Amino acid sequence: MVKLTPQAPALVNFDFTDIANGTGYEYYYPIQARDSVGITYNLTAQSDYSDEVKIATNLSNSPNDIDYDLTPFVIPRTVNGKVLLSIPVDVQATITPTLVAELYRWDGTTETKIGSTMTYDTQLTTAGKMIYMTMDVDNELIPVGQTLRLRIQVTNVNGNFHYYGIDPANRTDAILELTTQTKLSIPYKLDS
Fold it and tell me: Who's near 122: CB < 8 A, 6+ residues apart?
């Protein structure tokens, strides 16, 4: 007969605020990758170095519409609560670009928008600025094999450039003086 030795139970730590709210935030950063095939845009939870530190938009490439994708989920997750997005921006001259951010559930073929659209269309001057936007998402299940997609679209019908940061490692840049790191905060529902 084999005698089994009792083991200590697993210890899991949660922030009190997470438990009280029933959600826990996870943080993702838009990043650009380059390989032999070309350029891809992703979301990463790590502070990796992006191929480029910023995205530039002007009259020649406006609207600039980029999808940043997370890797497919291996367990189902439910997004529930206030999604937070902070984006560093700068411009060459005083302009009024429109920056739109949307969140999607994506299965590799079909996009399903979750939550509201975040829009920023206030005049920017040549001083760097942080844009902070919020979006409410109500109990959106992301099944196994699907992913989250952040779409950032900048419309700038001016000849001068608008820039926003995409470097999780937050390297310095002569144009984006505040930071080069854009941060997406996703509230996942905690299992009870």
Answer: 96
pLDDT of residue 69: 97
Helix (H) or strand (E) run with residue 100 in it: strand 98-106
> How sure is the predictor about 157, in pLDDT bands with cuts at 50, 70 and 90?
confident
Looking at residue 4, its pLDDT comes to: 60
Helices (H), the chain: 16-21
Nearest to 68 by CA among 94, 95, 87: 87
Asked whether 21 and 80 are in contact (CB, 8 A), the reply is no
85 phi, psi to nearest 5 deg: -140, 125
Q: For position 18, what pLDDT does the model report?
A: 66
Q: Please, what are the domains in the chain?
A: 22-189 (2.60.120.260)
